[in-house]
Design goal:
Elements (H helix, E strand, L loop, with lengths): L3 E7 L2 E7 L14 E4 L21 H16 L2 E11 L3 E4 L12 E10 H8 L6 H23 L2 E7 L5 E9 L8 H4 L2 H8 L1
Antiparallel strand pairs: 1-2, 2-7, 3-6, 4-5, 4-6, 7-8
Length: about 200
């Protein structure tokens, strides 16, 4: 049984927003960035051959030297962000090294999110990579990190509409983020159900 986030009744029908338990990792989608993770978090990112086999003495050393290792491996890196994880009653990732992601006991740096110049050329069908395109790609990487964070944190939802006998009338899953007006649920769900859920 899926965890119910929100529900509402309309006459003999009930609509529920539930946590999606069978969601596919967004790293299987067509992404611009490569997520180069290491250690026990390698499975959360993309497959890679980067060798981080180096005796890092601190987190900061991993951030500095790990980026150098990634840049040497991929040669033409245009965007590179260290990816940090906070792990306490759940997991969350970010490229912002602040707040909970700096906690010395419950956080760490798990790898890097990168975009190469070749990736940019292919994405935009251009020959010369300018700062304008690099800036666009930085925003895309932030979005891809946010989506992966929602996946890791379990912030992926679906809706179920049932009649009074609990027969499913309608359902759909795979919506990232908990705001039904921003995550796409309101585009799929009948307006009467959306109003009942947001009122």
């Amino acid at each position: 049984m899926s965890y119910v986030i929100k529900e509402a009744k309309l006459g003999n029908e009930r609509v529920r927003i539930v946590q999606d338990e069978y969601v596919e990792t967004p790293r299987n989608w067509s992404n611009l960035s490569k997520m180069i993770f290491t250690g026990g978090h390698r499975h959360l990112g993309d497959k890679h051959e980067v060798d981080f086999d180096y005796p890092f003495n601190s987190r900061q050393e991993f951030i500095t030297w790990g980026e150098e290792i990634v840049r040497k491996h991929f040669k033409d890196v245009a965007v590179c962000y260290a990816v940090h994880m906070y792990k306490h009653s759940g997991e969350s990732i970010s490229i912002d090294y602040s707040g909970q992601y700096t906690c010395r006991w419950d956080s760490g740096t798990i790898g890097f999110a990168i975009v190469t110049k070749e990736d940019i050329r292919k994405e935009y069908n251009i020959k010369r990579v300018t700062q304008k395109y690099i800036d666009k790609c930085e925003n895309i990487v932030r979005g891809e990190i946010k989506t992966l964070d929602q996946y890791i944190s379990g912030e992926v939802y679906g809706y179920i509409v049932e009649d009074e006998d609990e027969n499913v009338i309608d359902s759909c899953y795979g919506f990232f983020g908990d705001d039904i007006e921003k995550n796409g649920i309101s585009d799929y769900l009948e307006e009467k159900y959306v109003k009942a859920l947001v009122d």
